[in-house]
Design goal:
Radius of gyration: 19 Å
Helix content: 10-25%
Strand content: 35-45%
Number of helices: 1
Strand order of the largest sheet: 7-6-5-8
Structural class: mainly beta
Shape: elongated
Number of strands: 8
């Protein structure tokens, strides 16, 4: 099965379907809802206390699943509801 490194895809075909499709990388952002009054916020930085938040999703910190789950555990309380949002990175 020859591999074309310039295109990132395999040249071989099995039963009419392409093989060697590039994998999609999935990262996560943490979305925090603090009630109906405020807009949803996303985690922007983790190295500070309190954790820095932003309302702009493009500025949100992309992280792996375990880091995102740990972040949710650390900011979860009765007033805010954090959730995982998956993002496909190409």
């Amino acid at each position: 099965m020859p591999w074309d490194y310039s295109k990132g895809k395999s040249e071989s075909y099995e039963s009419g379907e392409k093989t060697g499709e590039p994998l999609k990388i999935i990262k996560f952002v943490v979305k925090v809802n603090r009630g109906a009054v405020r807009a949803a916020e996303y985690v922007q930085r983790l190295d500070r206390i309190p954790i820095q938040m932003t309302t702009d999703r493009k500025q949100a910190l992309l992280m792996g699943r375990y880091t995102a789950e740990d972040t949710i555990k650390s900011i979860q309380n009765s007033r805010c509801t954090p959730e995982l949002v998956s993002v496909t990175v190409s």
